[in-house]
């Protein structure tokens, strides 16, 4: 594993020994990276490279536009996804892939929570990613349903993975309690466009088994 710092982002690169393996870009927290990778190894994935980006400004880098606080003590989301995606494509990706054993067969994008929202949103902005995995994606985010229903992805992805905890929509917060309905509607919409999709309902809340759920989604898109 090699680590880089690019524009204050930490980039951990786990190369494959096999040239031309696919590469998965994972936006995550730095303390989750090793656990996710160990879970992937335990699942017996085919050869792949993992590029994990952390030290993110979560409510800025992973959100497509401004959204006010969802609760009294929360902070707003400030809509920096387009800028972060440009950094990912123009700087992080070239530097990371220069350290890989050959050009990747394809690129995937994965993330949990707001990074799961970003994983889908990015497909509407760039054709670089062939597959994506959104685990507990924040599809309660205001305006995201209208956006995906009125825009087309830059390319038809090979496959899309969606998962959610079965208790995530069990909340009195009217913003958050639509998350399961919205996730399933997005999955149905994408499937209707001829994309291979799956929706997995895990046991538990948003904060349970995050790294295992992340690995499960990446494992799925690697095995299509």
From TrEMBL:
GO molecular function, one term: hydrolase activity
Keywords from the UniProt entry: Hydrolase
Residue intervals passing through the bilayer: none
Highest taxon of the lineage: Bacteria
Keyword Hydrolase attached: yes
Protein name according to UniProt: Esterase
Organism for this UniProt entry: Blautia wexlerae
